[in-house]
Design goal:
The chain contains 8 helices and no strands. It is an all-alpha fold. Helices cover 84% and strands 0% of the residues.
Length: 227
Amino acid sequence: MVTKANILKSLTLGYFIIAFFEIVSEYLAYTPFICSLKPLIPLLLTGIYLINSEKKNPTFVIVLLLSMVVNILFIPNTPICLYYALIIFTIHRIVVIYLIFKLQKVKDFIPVIIATTPFLLIFFYLFIETNEIPANSFYLLILQNILISLFAGIALSSYVMNDNKQNSVLLISVLLFVMLQFTVFIEKYFLVNEFQKLFRPLAMTFNTLAFFSLYKYVIIAEKSNNN
């Protein structure tokens, strides 16, 4: 008998199988598989969310679709595509933070500011130490650093103030996103011609796990808010 639970299990298994082949393709630099599998990962996660969620938050669907566009723009690995990917990813990050504020309902911003500060220091130290940043991406990367630091600050402060399953899953997701941003930044601007075979599959691994954790957080948050 086909049930909702069985469909979700099958699609989730398919998600991780496709992600595995995508990560292997990144390591082997096999472009045909990368072009077909990379956009498919967020698209499949969108389907999983729409089946599993009772609320079907359109903001989260937008987050996943923007992720798909970013994945497509990262495929060519050219300066112009990287620039457009940064623009879309900046919009994506703003929408994610808006979504988190809607689900978390943060009332005290002092813990958020305190938790955000260490991430700002780390990201801006790395930014200052990098000499290969194109002029057209300079301010976009500054904004990216602020947004990921704020995102991490919200998750960390929420976890410290209230250690429940919802905040734990959010923190896991954010830490994966932080590692993703570190990996992409180091690959694109810091060690441009080194360890390419390592960074691209590593970034894709963090990407896959981060978005799946974010999906789990949204489902838990929706159920918690309904209750």
